[in-house]
Write a structure and sequence with these properties.
single chain; alpha/beta; seven-stranded mixed sheet; six-stranded mixed sheet; globular; binds flavin-adenine dinucleotide
């Protein structure tokens, strides 16, 4: 890395909640930050799938806030109208029996969609969408990035932050630095098969969402039970173990197995309209979370849920803490 006072230009790969939080904090300390994101919009796994006549949150379903810094951030989202408390009627299914959930957790959802807080953060940041970073190269103490069809990004950076799931970070780092690739290769991430279903013959249920234990499905939720949603869509998640073991199934075969499980749970799937999504890297991470990772000697940082216990709060805090570390290194 250049001498500390020169460390000004930062490239962040990934506009999920970790990359956005890192960028926001760095920018507030006067650093110049460019984010590169392979999708068409921000928020990563805090996402909403849209079709012509329906939409459904198909990644993260809700978030909780325990750390005072994240609680404060969530309040700014609430004040901006991009998040709100969701109070679902929750049930649990286990060993053939349904019961009320005793959980007293305060749950938030993005409004009107799960990707709304990310869109809100993205407004003040410089993000180049539809740009998949395919190669990193360190020359003359600076980082050079290649994207998509091997085109070189027209800028050099003092620091590069990878705010992407561990296996995707590993692909970029394995030939660059053994210390970083040891970390990325030791994280265990699991897949999630997600089904979005319109169930026209399903009568109103006495719950909004349910945790399903010991089945191939682990979660079902009526999307419209969340504030500001309309329509009749259900989001159903495969369990992490079943999804990982069956990650290479075709969408049709995964759907058949999940529909059978839903039917066994008592839901009417007749004439269902279904869309499937395969998340290759949905959850999991380091067995012993380290928050974030940085190599000041080569100007490299890693952040994301997989370094910090998983989930949205962990991802946001990981990005924040990495940014504070970079600020310390540059002052
Ligand atoms: P991501 O959101 O994955 O962001 C990484 C970004 O990097 C993505 O936008 C991706 O497109 C981009 N990217 C990747 N590679 C490249 C590249 N080479 N070049 C450019 N861009 C790239 N959390 C909760 O708190 N509550 C829940 O209920 C919950 N449920 C979940 C259900 C599912 C099905 C899934 C998938 C996740 C769920 N999570 C939940 C987890 C939560 O979504 C994540 O912890 C959090 O969103 C991770 O944020 P992140 O910024 O670390 O990573």
């Amino acid at each position: 890395m250049n001498s500390n006072t020169e460390m000004k230009k930062v490239a962040i790969i990934g506009a999920g909640i970790a990359g956005l939080s890192c960028a926001q904090e760095l920018q507030s300390h006067g650093m110049s930050v460019d984010i590169f994101e392979k999708s068409r919009g921000p928020s990563g796994r805090m996402s909403t799938r849209r079709s012509n006549d329906w939409s459904a949150d198909h990644g993260a379903q809700y978030f909780t806030a325990r750390d005072p810094r994240f609680m404060q951030e969530v309040q700014t989202w609430v004040q901006a109208g991009t998040a709100v408390i969701w109070k679902p009627k929750l049930k649990v299914y286990e060993a053939g029996l349904w019961r009320e959930s005793k959980s007293q957790e305060i749950r938030y959802v993005g409004t009107p969609n799960m990707n709304s807080p990310g869109k809100h953060l993205a407004k003040s940041l410089s993000i180049q969408y539809e740009t998949t970073i395919s190669q990193l190269e360190r020359r003359d103490d600076q980082w050079h990035l290649r994207c998509n069809e091997n085109a070189e990004i027209n800028a050099a950076y003092d620091f590069v932050v990878l705010a992407i799931p561990a296996p995707q970070a590993h692909a970029l780092l394995k030939d660059i630095d053994a210390r970083a690739s040891d970390i990325t290769s030791s994280a265990q991430m699991k897949a999630c098969w997600t089904m979005m279903a319109n169930l026209p013959n399903q009568a109103r249920t006495d719950f909004d969402a349910a945790f399903i234990n010991q089945e191939i499905i682990s979660w079902i939720c009526q999307n419209e039970s969340k504030p500001m949603r309309q329509g009749n869509m259900w989001t159903i998640h495969g369990s992490p173990n079943w999804s990982q073991e069956n990650v290479e199934l075709s969408k049709e075969d995964a759907q058949d197995q999940m529909v059978k499980c839903l039917t066994d749970l008592g839901l009417n799937c007749q004439d269902a309209e279904i869309s499937m999504h395969r998340w290759r890297y949905a959850s999991g991470g380091l067995e012993n979370p380290i928050g974030f990772f940085t190599l000041p000697d080569i100007g490299l940082g890693l952040c994301g849920d997989w370094l910090n216990g998983g989930r949205i709060e962990g991802a946001w805090l990981s990005g924040l803490e990495l940014a504070l570390k970079l600020k310390e290194l540059s002052s």
